[in-house]
Design a protein that fits this description.
about 0% helix, 10 strands, about 130 residues, Rieske Iron-sulfur Protein, mainly beta, globular, single chain, three-stranded antiparallel beta sheet
Amino acid sequence: MASSAPRVSGEILLCRLEEIPDGDSRGFDPLREGRDTLMVIRQGTSLHAWRDACPHISGVPMAWRKDAYLNACRDRIVCSAHGALFDIATGLCTLGPCLGDSLEPMSVRLEGGSILWRPGQPRLPR
């Protein structure tokens, strides 16, 4: 089995902040499962991280191609399977068959310009 991404004190280093352009998104495979399982959306220095799976169809990846999680206006996350729209900050579905459901939050933090993820740790309320 392949090892996971580099760890820093039990956290997994995903990337440097500047590797995700402001207003953009990126998928990650931090546990080396062979597919992206976590997505991060950057808005300035704010980071929003979600499990890369639609709540409507269990386990369906959200991106329609690598790192393509956002709609054309770049103000919502869009599901590739059925076009459901999700609020970037809250993960709440605002349009589509899973209306009112939410994406599963992931806990990431920014330290010294690095984006770190702690496996199994729930995200704290904003």
